[in-house]
Write a structure and sequence with these properties.
Beta-Lactamase, single chain, Heat Shock Protein 90, rod-shaped, 13 strands, 550 residues
Length: 550
Amino acid sequence: MGLWMRLPCRSLAGKFTVCTSLVLLVTIACFAYVTIEALRGVFLEEAQDDVETLSEIILHTTHLQMLEDNRDVVYKMMDEVGKHKTIGRIRLLDDRGTIRYSTHANEIGRVTDQPADDCQDCHCPEIAESFPPMESRRRVIRDCSGTEILSVTKLIENQPACSAAACHVHPPEARILGALEVQASLHSVGVHADTYRKNVLAFAVSLLLIIVGCLVWLTHHLVVSPVHSLLLHSRKVAQMELDSHVVPTSADELGALAREFNEMTDRLRQARSEYEQLTETLEAKVQERTAEIAQMHSQLVRSEKLASLGKLVAGIAHEINNPLAGILMFATLFAEDRSLPKEMREDARIIVRETQRCAEIVKRLLEFSRNSIPRKKLKSLPVIMDDTLALLEHQAALNEIEILRGYDPMLPEILVDPAQIEQVFVNMVVNACQAMPNGGRLDIAMRADRDRHYLVTTIADNGHGIPREHLPKIFDPFFTTKDHPGTGLTGTGLGLSVSYGIIQNHGGRIGVVSEVGRGTVFTVELPLAASTMLPAGDPPGNLCVTGRNV
């Protein structure tokens, strides 16, 4: 690993090429060396076999002449063989190591040194009982000029025909009579080996260059080019140029890496887009969350206020109701008493009328404080709305108000208290009609929001609208805009409060959107299912009020 890091090449392709080339160079060099040495051994083995064969031929062709002791013929035959250009010399030795004949005449009669290598085969004490192997009679020596010489020594055995001959009888116990030594030059073998060595080296170098060239080309097209493209695009991504894409050129790991890179770039671009959108809309989201928190706080305060006020109102209503009953009874008697003056009877009638009005207010207060549990049953909401409109259509027609209905024909029946829901619809339709004293249009629509499991009712008018500052208070008890100068209307301020409580008890929600001069839209949402459980984050009776001044 350290050597890899210390390579002079800085590119991955350069390091890979250098390392691979070194491995190939060592491998091909070892292969060439082994091949050359093996072929040289083959050439040497063939030369040894040739010289061995030549020695056998000489012994066999001169065997008859030796039996007849025709030494001149034997020597002449050896001279003829020794004239061949590859034959260095031929020597004939007796069992004592005396050179009896040699193609080099100056050696004849000389006694060889027995401890020498070429004499050990016959005179070594360790091999007295058996003939030495053939390989032990071959050796390579060098002459004075440094040329390699192959020396093959062929032992002459004491055969029965030789020991029983009449010319020169040898004792039968003598196994070896002498030796024939043939020396041949290995110059031609060296020449062939050098030629082959050059050819092998040339082939090895050519093969190395071809492999390295192919490796460089393949590395460039399969590795360097895709990696360079990835590097270029990664630099662009580092500079936040997230529109950059790599074109995959293969189905291998680099192609998969390019596709993963493109997917990563797409995710980064998407994340940046989301981040930018989040940054742009952060303030709006903060305001929205703040408004939701304020709305939830307002709802909590309103609920606590309604609960406390309900207890107070219940006590006061009971305390007031009894005296009112007595006043109403005596005032009625006075109004019907003929013995009283007419003016007094008129005053009594006024007392009766106002007392009845107070009793109605007390009745509403009691209804508000009871917060009675709805008696639910399956009922069609459009039927309840139609019953409500049947009571109020005449009043709407007198005020020149057009009522338009838009019901989803597939609306299911839901669990509600029909009387309470009709009371809610009456309050809202009456408020809408009173908001259009000069006539107008009342749009009533119903639809099922099956994703959220609600049945949604909208009651929209094009009346004078509700000012923004009044919107957060319209569901508070005793808050009313009908007593303001110029309206010509009176109200107790309990209608919407009671409606809010009814919808809350049904597990629904009520909301209002209003623009001054354009009208108001009330939205009532009631759950489709029998359970009044709502999705997380949407508490029962959630109130939504929005408005704009125009």
